[in-house]
Design a protein that fits this description.
- This protein has two domains: 30-174, no CATH class; 189-348, no CATH class.
- 60% of the residues lie in helices and 0% in strands.
- It is built from twelve helices and no strands.
- It has helices at residues 2-7, 12-19, 32-51, 76-98, 107-125, 129-138, 147-174, 192-221, 230-238, 241-258, 284-310, 330-348.
Amino acid sequence: MTRTIQNAPLPRAQRDASTEGRPAPGARRFPVGWAAFLALLTYGLAHVYWALGGSGFPFGAEDANPEYSAFEHIGRAQLAPWVAAGFLLSAGVALLLALPGRRRIPAPVLLGATAVSAAAVLGTLADFRILGNLAYVFMLRFSAINWTVINQVFAVVAVGLMVMSAVTYQRRVTGACVGCGRTDSGAGWTSSAAAARWGRKAAYTAVAVPLVYASTRWAWALGYPLGISDKMWQEGKEDHLWLFGAALATMGALGSLLTLGLVQRWGEVFPRWMIGLRGRRVPLALATVPASLVSVMVTTAGIMYIRLHFQGAFDDPKHNWGATVPETIWPVWGVALAAATLAYYFRRRGACKRCGRGGH
């Protein structure tokens, strides 16, 4: 009898409490909160250096391509102190998120500050050049990547880590598992069945939007000036721009079709024609990591085009709408792709090694 009592499993509440804050067995927990703090602090101090007169400031009037910048006419002396303050304040919030336990500052305030930091970076500092330079990476033209784009990537990664830390903090203060976010109250919209429903709608939306953009570029390459003036089409033809644009559009369209893998069987198990891999389970990260990165890049690119429209940066948008309007719906593409990716993760994540929830 004694042995039975000693070997009986702990109630779930006690088991969760005993494992709270500990890494899963056999795994090393990545300190994302501290990584976010260090990245934001480092970048904030870099902007302090630039504010004090250091060379190499990457934004505003000193941008490699200031016409794309939200701060095109603002110089380093005016802009760098504000950017430094923003990143240093974000580092302070990240530190509060990373420290164990609860804060005196209400959680909604910390989570709201995180959202503001992410929105500021994605809406002002980052732009479509991150997505454009990805093509240079595939073409092994690394010399074409400029200093501004490198800084944009660093800023996006820093606030991305901050968002991940905020998610972990929110789980911790609400009593959810910090590993998977599940609670004893039920999965709700994060359940596999629910995610399958709303994830399918998101995936189909993420497929449709880039095809709208691609259709204009294919039309130009085939000789039809869809949405642009004859003069603009002729100028682009002479410089072979439309062939290059059609190639990029085709890459985007093929990528959008891969989005279907988030809701199709071949996105979970390698199909038969993939010799050496057929029948094997598709690693979760192989689908979620690239899709998450693309969702961020197309969203920032779309936000930039919307911003430039409001700034009046495009000539004759009424007659050349095909050159800029399709890009303004890219945020819909990015959000839909992010949602479809999240649904895919919810469907496939299985039981949590930390809390044991999710098992069948």
